[in-house]
Amino acid sequence: MTDRVVVVAGAVYEEGRLLAARRSAPEELAGRWELPGGKVEPGERPEQALVRELREELGIETEPVERVPGEWPLRPGYVLQVWTARLVSGEPEPLQDHDALRWLAPDELDAVDWLDQDRPAVAACARRRREGVGESARR
Predict the structure, then answer these.
(1) CB-hemisphere CA count at 13 Å for 65?
(2) Alpha carbons 81 and 46: distance in angstroms, whole number
(3) Residue 138 pLDDT > 50, yes or no?
(4) Cα–Cα distance for residue pair 67/6, rounded to 1 Å
(5) Does the pLDDT of residue 79 top 80, yes or no?
(6) Is 81 exposed, middle or buried (0-12, 13-18, 19+ CB in 10 A)?
(7) How does residue 65 score in pLDDT terms, banded at 50, 70 and 90?
(8) How far apart are CA 73 and CA 89, in angstroms?
(9) N or C: more exposed end of the chain, with fewer CB within 10 A?
(10) 63 in a domain, yes or no?
(11) Can you give the residue range of the structural domain that contains 101?
(12) Please, are residues 125 and 106 in contact by the beta-carbon 8 Å criterion?
Protein backbone atom coordinates (compact mmCIF):
# COMPACT_ATOMS: atom_id res chain seq x y z
CA MET A 1 0.00 0.00 0.00
CA THR A 2 1.37 3.41 -0.91
CA ASP A 3 1.48 6.27 1.52
CA ARG A 4 -0.58 9.31 0.76
CA VAL A 5 -0.37 12.86 1.97
CA VAL A 6 -3.51 14.29 3.52
CA VAL A 7 -4.18 17.97 2.95
CA VAL A 8 -6.82 19.46 5.22
CA ALA A 9 -8.98 22.46 4.42
CA GLY A 10 -11.34 24.47 6.55
CA ALA A 11 -14.87 25.41 5.58
CA VAL A 12 -14.90 28.35 7.99
CA TYR A 13 -18.33 29.89 8.36
CA GLU A 14 -19.42 33.10 9.99
CA GLU A 15 -22.98 34.45 9.85
CA GLY A 16 -23.77 31.88 7.14
CA ARG A 17 -20.91 32.99 4.89
CA LEU A 18 -18.00 30.78 3.77
CA LEU A 19 -14.42 32.04 3.91
CA ALA A 20 -12.50 31.76 0.62
CA ALA A 21 -8.80 32.52 0.17
CA ARG A 22 -7.11 33.58 -3.08
CA ARG A 23 -3.76 31.88 -3.70
CA SER A 24 -0.67 34.00 -4.32
CA ALA A 25 1.70 31.01 -4.53
CA PRO A 26 2.82 28.80 -6.11
CA GLU A 27 2.67 30.58 -9.46
CA GLU A 28 0.53 27.91 -11.17
CA LEU A 29 -2.21 28.39 -8.53
CA ALA A 30 -1.95 32.16 -8.09
CA GLY A 31 -5.18 34.09 -8.54
CA ARG A 32 -7.47 31.11 -7.91
CA TRP A 33 -9.53 30.56 -4.78
CA GLU A 34 -9.50 27.75 -2.24
CA LEU A 35 -10.66 26.63 1.15
CA PRO A 36 -7.63 27.47 3.32
CA GLY A 37 -5.54 24.76 4.95
CA GLY A 38 -2.47 22.63 4.34
CA LYS A 39 -0.64 19.35 4.80
CA VAL A 40 -0.95 17.14 7.84
CA GLU A 41 2.51 16.75 9.37
CA PRO A 42 3.82 13.36 10.62
CA GLY A 43 2.37 12.56 14.05
CA GLU A 44 -0.33 15.21 13.71
CA ARG A 45 -4.06 14.51 13.63
CA PRO A 46 -5.94 16.16 10.75
CA GLU A 47 -7.91 18.36 13.15
CA GLN A 48 -4.68 19.59 14.74
CA ALA A 49 -3.23 20.33 11.31
CA LEU A 50 -6.30 22.33 10.38
CA VAL A 51 -6.09 24.52 13.49
CA ARG A 52 -2.33 25.04 12.96
CA GLU A 53 -2.65 25.81 9.25
CA LEU A 54 -5.46 28.33 9.72
CA ARG A 55 -3.46 30.03 12.47
CA GLU A 56 -0.33 30.20 10.26
CA GLU A 57 -2.07 31.20 7.03
CA LEU A 58 -4.82 33.50 8.31
CA GLY A 59 -3.95 34.42 11.92
CA ILE A 60 -7.19 33.00 13.32
CA GLU A 61 -8.09 30.49 15.99
CA THR A 62 -10.65 27.93 14.92
CA GLU A 63 -12.40 24.89 16.28
CA PRO A 64 -12.99 21.95 13.92
CA VAL A 65 -16.66 20.96 14.05
CA GLU A 66 -17.03 17.97 11.76
CA ARG A 67 -15.43 16.34 8.77
CA VAL A 68 -17.27 16.71 5.49
CA PRO A 69 -17.72 13.15 4.16
CA GLY A 70 -15.45 12.20 1.28
CA GLU A 71 -12.02 13.13 0.11
CA TRP A 72 -10.86 14.60 -3.17
CA PRO A 73 -7.69 13.86 -5.17
CA LEU A 74 -5.29 16.77 -5.53
CA ARG A 75 -2.36 15.24 -7.39
CA PRO A 76 -0.83 11.77 -7.32
CA GLY A 77 -0.35 10.73 -3.68
CA TYR A 78 -2.28 13.72 -2.24
CA VAL A 79 -5.89 13.90 -1.07
CA LEU A 80 -8.00 16.74 0.28
CA GLN A 81 -10.15 16.33 3.37
CA VAL A 82 -12.43 19.14 4.54
CA TRP A 83 -13.72 20.04 7.99
CA THR A 84 -16.29 22.63 8.89
CA ALA A 85 -14.72 24.97 11.40
CA ARG A 86 -15.95 27.61 13.78
CA LEU A 87 -14.08 30.90 14.04
CA VAL A 88 -13.13 31.22 17.72
CA SER A 89 -11.05 34.40 17.63
CA GLY A 90 -9.16 36.74 15.38
CA GLU A 91 -9.92 38.51 12.13
CA PRO A 92 -8.73 36.54 9.09
CA GLU A 93 -5.85 38.11 7.17
CA PRO A 94 -3.92 36.71 4.18
CA LEU A 95 -0.60 36.03 5.92
CA GLN A 96 0.87 33.11 3.95
CA ASP A 97 0.33 31.92 0.35
CA HIS A 98 -2.75 34.15 -0.11
CA ASP A 99 -3.28 37.75 -1.19
CA ALA A 100 -7.02 38.17 -0.60
CA LEU A 101 -9.85 36.74 1.46
CA ARG A 102 -13.56 36.91 0.84
CA TRP A 103 -16.66 35.90 2.82
CA LEU A 104 -19.14 34.33 0.40
CA ALA A 105 -22.87 34.11 1.00
CA PRO A 106 -24.50 30.85 -0.13
CA ASP A 107 -25.63 32.45 -3.42
CA GLU A 108 -22.11 33.81 -4.11
CA LEU A 109 -20.16 30.53 -4.12
CA ASP A 110 -19.80 30.66 -7.91
CA ALA A 111 -18.54 34.26 -7.81
CA VAL A 112 -14.89 33.21 -7.44
CA ASP A 113 -12.64 31.02 -9.60
CA TRP A 114 -12.14 28.03 -7.28
CA LEU A 115 -9.20 25.71 -7.79
CA ASP A 116 -10.46 22.71 -9.75
CA GLN A 117 -9.59 20.44 -6.82
CA ASP A 118 -11.66 22.53 -4.39
CA ARG A 119 -14.83 22.75 -6.49
CA PRO A 120 -16.30 19.36 -5.45
CA ALA A 121 -15.42 20.00 -1.80
CA VAL A 122 -17.10 23.42 -1.84
CA ALA A 123 -20.14 21.85 -3.52
CA ALA A 124 -20.26 19.16 -0.82
CA CYS A 125 -20.11 21.80 1.92
CA ALA A 126 -22.89 23.84 0.29
CA ARG A 127 -25.07 20.76 -0.17
CA ARG A 128 -24.67 19.77 3.51
CA ARG A 129 -25.61 23.25 4.67
CA ARG A 130 -28.69 23.35 2.42
CA GLU A 131 -29.75 20.02 3.90
CA GLY A 132 -29.24 21.37 7.43
CA VAL A 133 -26.31 19.07 8.21
CA GLY A 134 -23.51 20.60 10.24
CA GLU A 135 -25.75 23.17 11.86
CA SER A 136 -23.36 23.36 14.80
CA ALA A 137 -20.85 25.17 12.57
CA ARG A 138 -23.26 28.04 12.04
CA ARG A 139 -22.98 31.18 14.08
Answers:
(1) 18
(2) 8
(3) no
(4) 13
(5) yes
(6) buried
(7) very high
(8) 31
(9) N
(10) yes
(11) 5-130
(12) no
Task: Tell me the three-class secondary structure of the chain, residue by residue.
Answer: CCCCEEEEEEEEEECCEEEEEEECCCHHHCCCEECCEEECCCCCCHHHHHHHHHHHHHCCEEEEEEEEEEEEEEECCEEEEEEEEEEEECCCCCCCCEEEEEEECHHHHHHCCECCCCHHHHHHHHHHHHCCCCHHHCC
The C-alpha atoms of residue 76 and residue 135 are separated, in whole angstroms, by 33
pLDDT digits (tens, 9 = 90+) for 25-58: 899 999 999 999 999 999 999 999 999 999 999 9
More confident residue, 136 or 131: 131
Q: Quick check: is 113 in a domain?
A: yes
What's the CA gap between 94 and 30, in Å, rounded?
Answer: 13
Q: Is residue 138 part of a domain?
A: no
The pTM of this model reads 0.90
- pLDDT band of 134, cuts 50, 70, 90: low
CATH number (domain holding residue 56): 3.90.79.10
